[in-house]
Amino acid sequence: MSEIITQWQPPLEEHRNGQILGYILRYRLFGYNNVPWSYQNITNEAQRNFLIQELITWKDYIVQIAAYNNMGVGVYTEGSKIKTKEGVPEAPPTNVKVEAINSTAARCRWTPPNPQQINGINQGYKIQAWQRRLIDGEWRDFERRMKTVPPSLIDPLAEQTAVLGGLEKFTEYNISVLCFTDPGDGVASIQVAVMTMDDVPDEVTGLHFDDVSDRSVKVLWAPPRSSNGILTGYTVRYQVKDRPDSLKSFNLTADDTELTVNQLQATTHYWFEIFAWTRVGSGTPKTATIQSGVEPVLPHAPTALALSNIEAFSVVLQFTPGFDGNSSITKWKVEGQTARNMTWFTICEINDPDAETLTVTGLVPFTQYRLRLSASNVVGSSKPSEATKDFQTIQARPKHPPFNVTVRAMSAQQLRVRWIPLQQTEWYGNPRGYNISYKQLVKTPGTIKYVPRSVVIEDHTANSHVLDSLEEWTLYEVKMNACNDVGCSKESDTAVERTREAVPSYGPLDVQANATSSTTVVVQWGEVPRQHRNGQIDGYKVFYAAADRGQQVLHKTIPNNATFTTTLTELKKYVVYHVQVLAYTRLGNGALSTPPIRVQTFEDTPGVPSNVSFPDVSLTMARIIWDVPVDPNGKILAYQVTYTLNGSAMLNYSREFPPSDRTFRATELLPGKYYSFSCTAQTRLGWGKIATALVYTTNNRERPQAPSVPQISRSQIQAHQITFSWTPGRDGFAPLRYYTVEMRENEGRWQPLPERVDPSLSSFTALGLRPYMTYQFRIQATNDLGPSAFSRESVIVRTLPAAPAVGVGGLKVVPITTTSVRVQWSALETALWNGDASTGGYRILYQQLSDFPTALQSTPKTDVHGINENSVVLSDLQQDRNYEIVVLPFNSQGPGPATPPAAVYVGEAVPTGEPRAVDAAPISSTEVRLLWKPPKQSMQNGDILGYKIYYLVTYSPQALEPGRKWEEEIEVVSATATSHSLVFLDKFTEYRIQLLAFNPAGDGPRSAPITVKTLPGVPSAPLHLRFSDITMQSLEVTWDPPKFLNGEILGYLVTYETTEENEKFSKQVKQKVSNTTLRVQNLEEEVTYTFTVRAQTSVDYGPGISENVTTGPQDGSPVAPRDLILTKTLSSVEMHWINGPSGRGPILGYLIEAKKREKGEPSFVYDSRWTKIEQTRKGMMQDFTVSYHILMPSTAYTFRVIAYNRYGISFPVYSKDSILTPSKLHLEYGYLQHKPFYRQTWFMVSLAATSIVIIVMVIAVLCVKSKSYKYKQEAQKTLEESMAMSIDERQELALELYRSRHGVGTGTLNSVGTLRSGTLGTLGRKSTSRPPPGVHLGKSPPRPSPASVAYHSDEESLKCYDENPDDSSVTEKPSEVSSSEASQHSESENESVRSDPHSFVNHYANVNDSLRQSWKKTKPVRNYSSYTDSEPEGSAVMSLNGGQIIVNNMARSRAPLPGFSSFV
Predict the structure, then answer these.
(1) For residues 759-788, average pLDDT
(2) Which region holds residue 1351: left if phi is over 0, alpha if psi is between -120 and 50, else beta?
(3) Does pLDDT of 830 surpass 80?
(4) Is the pLDDT assigned to residue 1423 strictly greater than 60?
(5) Are strands 205-210 and 217-222 parallel, antiparallel or unpaired?
C-alpha cells in the first residue's frame, strides 16, 4: 500500500560511454515540483529493480532513474507516474447520530471522513449494532447486526443516512459506523447508545390447569418469553366451547400468574384464552380447552400413522388422534429417525388441535426416515406413537455448491482448483460429482469473448483438480457447482487466477532483413502477438548463420522491448544468411520467427587464395599451385601470379590466369636463391588480398625437422585455455606452410585441433578446455614435401578449477507452513564441480512476484554449503504472496547457471499433523462411531476445511467374487466435527480406519490406522435349496451357506410341513442341524411339502429360503414296473416283475420294500410304513430273492418294487398276495436238514479238527527232533515226580491247568454268546486266585459243544431271533485283554516245565506252545457284508497264527469254534 517496485533496463551499449557502476533513483509526489527529490543509490550495476518503501498510501508519485560511471551521473529518464496502492481509511465517520424509529429499526446519520484520510476509493460504510456481555468477569462487545451502505454518488462529503433493521424489540444497542476500502475496514466511530421501541408482548408460556372440579378450575401461566416492553397486565377470557355468548373476561395485573374461575357448569367443555399487555397493546393469545369436573391428564398417543405425498423436503402424515386427556391438543410434535441418526430428534411442531393430517416439513432429500408423533395438551406430552414404516424422501438438487473455491497457478499451463467437498447429507441424491467451468477473462473491451469450458470430476469426495492445457500468462475465471441425478446446484463464487509466465510461444511478426554492405545487414521486426507473449518481453535476439556453409549460428541480443531494429556487422561477404528473431522473457528464449529470412551480403574483392605450395622445385625451376580463396566474396574472374628474387625490389615476372587455372611453372631461376611468389584473385570489384610464399631453388629439399618440446609456464594456464610456445626446427630448404597441434586429455587419445597454425608463429593458445583436467600437447610442422615428425610431448599440466558449468535439476518447492517453504533439488555429481568441490554449495535466490516481475538479481538469498545437500527451508516469508525461487551451484571460483524460476504461493500449506486420539467403537452391526481431536494448532497451517475418513475392509465373513478386491471408501465431514458415524457398513466385518485433515492447500497426513469390527447380525437367507434322492417316504435336502453370513454361523433350522392341511398327517417339523444337508425320513407318500431353511448366528435366525417338493416320482423318472409275482421257497421269497419304460435315463436299480402285518390282526390291517429291504445298484433286472433271514419270523409281509434312475423313482408295483415267513424253530432246525452234506455243521467241524491235528503233529515232530536231548533230561525228572503223585493230586493238577488256560468258571455260554448271571468270570478274563486246596472236582471240566453257540450276522437277525433281549453282551477293554493274555503266556511257560513230556496233553502244551499262545492272543474280527446270491451274509474273519477261518453265520451253517484241537 505504501510501496512501489521500480524496474528498468540499462542504457544501450552505444550510450554507456564506459562501464556502468550503478544507478541513482529519485522520486517525489506528483505535482509537487517545489518539493525536493528523494534519492536512492543503487551500487550494483546488475540490479534491475528497486522497492521504494514508506510512501504515502493512494498518492501519485513520479519516479526517475539515471546510470552513472566513473565520469558521473548520466541523464535521468523522463519519469514515470505511478500511484501507490490503496490502504484502509485512517479516520472514522464523524457526527454519528442514532434514533429508534420502531421496535426493530433505528435511523443512523453520519458525516464521511476526510477524503485525504480514506487512503483509497471509498467503497461504502458499515453500520454495526453491538451488545455487551459479561464473560469471565469482563464486559465484551458482540456484533449483533451489520449493514453495508454504499457511499453517496451525488455528494460524497454530505451527511449520509441509513436505516438499520432486524433489531430485537425493546433492546439496547451500541451503534458504530466505519468506512471501508478494498484493502479492508477503516477505524470505527465512537459507539452511540440507542434502545428500540417497545411492542406487544409474545404469548404467555406454561399454561396449565389445576384443582379442576365441577364448579371451578385454577388457571396458571408464566410470563411471555419476550415481553417486548414493560408488562402492564394480563387478560383471561373463557366461555363454554362453541358458545360465544357465554364469554367472560378478567383483567389482572402484571404480577398475577394464576386465576381461579368459579361458577362453572358441571361436565362442560370450556375454552380459555390468555394474553399479556404492554402499553402498546395486547400480545398473541394462548388458548386451551378443558372439561369441568374432569381433571386434565396426559393425552394418549396417536395411532394408525400413514404416509402420503412423499416429496424431497416434506411428507403428509395421516393419523388417528388418541384421547386428548380432557383438554384440547395444543401441539403436535413430529420426531424422526434416520439411518445415520438412530436417536429420535424433533423435526417440527405444529399447532392444530383438531388435525388428523399434518404436513411434515424440514426433511432432508434422499434420506430414509421413520416418523413418530406425540400430542401435547396443558398437562404435557403423550407417549410417542408407533413408528411409521421406513420411507425415503425423493431426490433434489444438491444443497449448495462447493464452498471455499480457490484457484492457484501451478505452471504456465496449469491451475489447481480446490474446494470443500459436500458432505453425504448435502448431496440430496446420488452424487454425480462436480462441474468446473472456466474461461479466459479479457479485460480489454471489444476483444474476443471466449466460450467457457467445463470439466466434470466424478469423485464426489475429491477436493482438488488441476486444469491443464491452458494459455500461458492468461487470466482465468473459475466457477463450480455440484451435480447429482436430479441436476446441479447453484454456481459458486467466481475465483480468478492468472497462469504463470512462460517463454513466448510465437516469434515476432514481419521480420525483414536488408543487406547494406558486404559485411552488414539491417534486421527489422514487429511485436509478438499478445496471446503468445506469455509474460513481459524483456528483449529480442536475432539469430543468423550462413545458409550453405554449416557455419556456427550466431546471435545478437537487443535488451530492450521497445527496439525493433538492429544491424548485424562483421558478416561474411557475398554470403547468403538465414535470419530469425525471437523474443525473450526473464524465463528464457521464446520461439523463433518463421520462416527464416534469406539475405545475401554485397559482393567485394576476394580474400587470399588458399593452400599455396610448391610441389616441384629444382635449381632453376619452381611450380606453384593454389586453391580458390576461402572467402571468394564474389565470382572469381582471374588469378595473378607474381614472383621476384627475395629482397629485390625489381619486378621479375607477373602473369594472369583464367579462374580454371590454379598452377604455374616458373623457369630460368637462379639456383640456391629464395624467391617470393605472390598470388591474388579478382572479382568484378577488383583484385583481392595477396598471398605471399617463399621458395628456395635447390635439388636437396626434404621434410622439416620436428619443432622443440612445447613449453608451458604456470602463468599461461587458465581454467579453459592453455598457451604454450616452441622453437621451430630446420625447414629442410622448403619454407614451412603451417603447424598442426595435437592434444590429449587425462592421458587419453591424441586428438588434432582443427585449426592450422601460421608458420610464422611460435606460440599457440588452446581454447575450449575443460577445467581441472590434465592436458599434454605436441606439434608437427608441414612444408611442401609433407609433415615432420611430432615433437616430444609437453609436460602434463592441469587446467585451473572453475565455477560449475551445469545447473541443478529437479527443483521442487513445497509449502510446509504459512510462512515457510521447503526447496528441494537434485545435487550435482562431484565431477561437475570443475575441480573445486570442497568449497561447493548451493545458492537459493527468491523474491516476491509482482505485476512486473524482473530477473532475480539483487534479491534475498540463502547459501547452503556442501555439494551433497539437496534441500533447505526458507522461513519468515510474507503470507499471501507469490514467490519465485531459483537455485544455482557455486564454489570459490564463482556461481554456476541458475535453474528456471519455480513459483509458489506462500500462505497455504497442508496440515503437517494428523487428527489425534482417533477412536472407533461399533454401535450396531452396520454402524461405527468415530471420535477424534483436531491436529495440534501449530500443525494446522491455516484453517482446517474438513476431514476425510478412509475406511477399508480387512476381514469379511463372506468371500469376494473372483477378480474383485475391497476398495477403500471415503467420507468427508465438516471442520467443526470431532465425531462421525459410519453407517451402511457390512455386518460382522473388520475395517481399517484412518483420518486426515485438509485445508485450502491440500490433504494432511493420515492418522495411524485403527481397526474396528462391526457387531454380528442375523444372516441372510441360505442359497440354492435343492432336493435329491427323493423316495416315496424320504428325501435329502441340501443348501448352500448364506451369501451374507453377518457373523459366525452356529447352525441351521430346517422346517417342513405339508402345503395342504390334512387331519391325518398335517404337522410342522423343526430340526436343527450344523451342516448344510439333512436326510428326512417318514414322510407321507405323494404329498407336497414346504421346506424352509434359516441360518443362525449369535444374534438370531435370519430370513429363510423356502421350496416345495413332492415325495414320490419326479419329472423324468421311470414308469412303474408291473405284474409283481411272489414265489415262496423254503429259505427265501423270489420276486419277478416286468419293467416299464426307463424315463429320461437308464434304470440304475430298484428299491425292494416290505410292509408287515402284526400277528393276530386281520389280513386287511397292515402297518402304515413301508420298510426298505434292499436297494440294488446293478441296473435293470426283473427278479430278486429276499432271504427269510432279514425278515421277522412268523410275520405276514406285503412287498413292492420301485425302479429308479438319476431323475428319481417310479411309482411302485405292489404284490397282490402277502407272504407269511416261517417260524424261528423251522429256521433253526428244519432249514438245516435241507443243506448239502458239505455245508452241514458236523462236516465242517470234523474237517477243521482233522486239519488242526495234522498241523499240530507236524509241528510236534519238528520240535521233538530239535530238542531231543533236552526232552530226555526233563522227561526222566518229570517221570520220577509224577510216579510219586497220587491219583487225586493228578486230577487236581489237571483241573488247575484247565482253569489257568481257559480262565472260565462254572458258568455256561448261552445261545447268543453271553454269560448268564451267576458265572464266576467273564469271557477273556480269568481269576488270578487259585481255589482252596480242599476243593476238588468230581469230573473233568465240560467241553463246549459247537451246537451250543448260535451264530448271527447282524443286529437285524438279533432283533428277530433274540429270545433274551435283556441279557447284556460280553465286552472287554483292549487293555484288559492284553493283560490277561500276558499272564496266561507266563503261566503256560511255567506249566510246560513241570508237565510230563510223555503225557498227551502236556506233549501238545510243550510242542505247540507258540501256536497256542498265538491262538490265545488272536482277537476275532467281525466283517459284515450285505446279502448276495452267491455269498452268505455275516461272515466273520478270525486270524489263527497267520491263517484265517471263515465262519459262516447264515442259517443252516455252523462254523467251528476257534481253539478246539483234534482231541475235541
Answers:
(1) 93
(2) beta
(3) yes
(4) no
(5) antiparallel
What residues does 903 pair with on adjacent strands?
A: 884
Label residue 1366 left, alpha or beta by phi (over 0 means left) and psi (-120 to 50 means alpha). Answer: alpha
The H or E element that residue 1002 is part of is strand 1002-1003
> What is the structure's pLDDT at 1244?
83
Backbone angles phi, psi at 508, to 5 degrees: -60, 155
DSSP string over 1076-1123: SEEEE-SPPTT-EEEEEEEEE-SS-EEEEEEEEEESS--TTPPPPPEE
Instruction: Determine the pLDDT at residue 799.
Output: 94
Residue 119 amino acid letter: N
pLDDT at residue 1404, rounded to an integer? 40
Q: What is the pLDDT of residues 144-202, one digit of tens each?
A: 999 999 998 888 888 999 999 999 999 999 999 999 998 889 999 999 999 999 999 99
Give CA separation, 939 vs 489, 908, 917, 933, 998, in Å: 34, 12, 15, 13, 11
Residues 770, 800: Cα–Cα separation, whole Å: 9
Residues with Cβ within 8 Å of 418's Cβ and at least 6 positions away in sequence, in order, are 404, 405, 406, 407, 408, 463, 464, 1000, 1001, 1002
pLDDT tens per residue across span 374-433:
999 888 899 999 999 999 999 999 999 999 899 988 888 999 999 999 988 899 999 999
Quote the CA–CA distance of 24 and 76 in Å, as a whole number: 9
Q: Is 1287 exposed, middle or buried (0-12, 13-18, 19+ CB in 10 A)?
A: exposed
Do 10 and 46 meet the contact criterion of CB atoms below 8 Å apart? no
> Residues 294, 312: contact at Cβ < 8 Å?
no
The C-alpha cell 616458373 sits at: 666
Confidence (pLDDT) at 549: 62
The dihedral sign for the CA sequence 622, 627, 633, 639: positive
- Average pLDDT over the chain, rounded to whole? 83
Q: How many CB atoms lie within 10 A of CB 764?
A: 20
**Environment class of 477 (CB within 10 Å of its CB; exposed 0-12, middle 13-18, buried 19+):** middle
Dist CA 932 CA 914 (whole Å) = 10
d(CA 434, CA 461): 10
Q: Which range is least confidently modeled, 314-318, 319-323, 913-917, 1129-1133?
A: 1129-1133
Instruction: Report the pLDDT value the prediction gives residue 1293, as an integer from 0 to 100.
Output: 61
CB-count burial class (<10 Å; 0-12, 13-18, 19+) for 881? middle
Residues 759 and 781: beta-carbon distance below 8 Å: yes
Helix, strand, or coil here: 1325? coil
0.85 surpassed by pTM: no
Place of cell 466273520: 1436
Task: Concatenate the DSSP letters of all residues of 309-338 into one string.
Answer: ---SS-EEEEEE----TTB---EEEEEEEE
Q: Which residue has the cell 570459490?
A: 892
- pLDDT at residue 1434, as a whole number: 39
Tell me phi and psi for residue 1261, to 5 degrees.
-60, -45
**Cα–Cα distance, 664 to 874 (Å, whole number):** 77
Return d(Cα 191, Cα 185) in angstroms, integer: 16
Task: Report how far residue 1283's alpha carbon sits from residue 1266's, in angstroms, rounded to the nearest whole number.
Answer: 27
Instruction: Report the distance separating Cα 470 and Cα 407, nearest Å.
Output: 14
Determine contact, residues 1183/1127, Cβ cutoff 8 Å: no
Cβ neighbours around 965 below 10 Å, total: 7
The tens digit of pLDDT for each residue in 1343-1370 reads 444 443 444 433 443 334 333 434 433 3
Query: Per this entry, what is the length of the chain?
Result: 1464
Which of the 8 DSSP states describes residue 1167? Answer: -
Q: Which three cell numbers stand for residue 1185?
A: 430273492
Q: Where are the alpha helices (DSSP H) in 1149-1286?
A: 1224-1225, 1231-1233, 1241-1266, 1268-1283
